[in-house]
């Protein structure tokens, strides 16, 4: 089990280039949602990094920050100029500008001509790309370690809450029959106060009483809750990403708890049910952090 919350950082370097990638992740109900902070000149790396992340993560809101440094030798390599070509191009452009009556070309104009700037800049970009993918893989591994550690803490907490739910459901189930008897006794008491006599011949009234007694029966809800709790434990121990399934299961448990609470007139069961709903709400909040 992994948490969707975590942080990873890694640096890769070679030949005077250094790339650092930081990844922070928080919970999200969507599929992987990514935001990148990358130097403009390296914007072409985003789809490459995005693809790698999608192969590793299935849920979460991800923030990726990439930064890089170049030492003096690497910087010079990027900025290296073929001076011979620069002179030839400058002379030719000035001649063309004079003939056309145009202003003389600027240095920037000359540097834009293919071949004037050394191709080593392209080599450096390729190196930075390779270092970026390496740093990303290492940062993802660091993030995964962080998410696993947080996931273990979440699992321990959810296991303890699951035990509490099980105890509460057992207490509710133990009082289920008494609750029905209590409801029946209350109905009889009300009828007696009204001075109404019930005979077995009055089929319609007998059915109506049976309906109200049956309505107070919470056996179905307790059985479903017990079944949900078995599944809950299985999901917590599963090696698969259980976040979505636990989220759905939390909704189902909450629905059964609400139904149970509405049906019973027993004060003890009502108290247990209130605690039950409170703990389910806490579980659903925690589950939102699970991948």
Task: Briefly summarize what is shown.
This protein is α+β, with helices and mostly antiparallel strands.
Characterization of the model:
By secondary structure, the chain is α+β, with helices and mostly antiparallel strands. It has ten helices and four strands. The chain has a four-stranded mixed beta sheet. A hairpin with a 2-residue loop joins strand 1 and strand 2. Helix 1 packs parallel to helix 5, helix 5 (120-174) packs antiparallel against helix 10 and helix 8 runs antiparallel to helix 9. The mean pLDDT is 83.
What are the SSEs and their pairings?
Elements: E1 6-14, E2 17-31, E3 33-37, H1 46-56, E4 59-70, H2 72-79, H3 83-100, H4 107-111, H5 120-174, H6 176-194, H7 203-215, H8 219-236, H9 243-263, H10 267-287
Helix pairs in contact: 1-5, 2-5, 5-8, 5-10, 6-7, 8-9, 9-10
Mean pLDDT: 83
Helix content: 55-70%
Rounded to the nearest angstrom, the radius of gyration is: 35 Å
* Total DSSP helices: 10
Tell me the fraction of residues in β-strands, as a range: 5-15%
Coarse morphology: rod-shaped
The low-confidence runs, each spanning 5 or more residues with pLDDT under 50, are none
User: How far is the N terminus from the C terminus?
Assistant: 7 Å
Q: Outline the biggest β-sheet.
A: 4 strands, mixed
| Element order: H for helix, E for strand | EEEHEHHHHHHHHH
Strand order of the largest sheet: 1-2-4-3
Number of separate strands: 4
Oligomer: single chain
Structural class computed from helices and strand pairing: alpha+beta
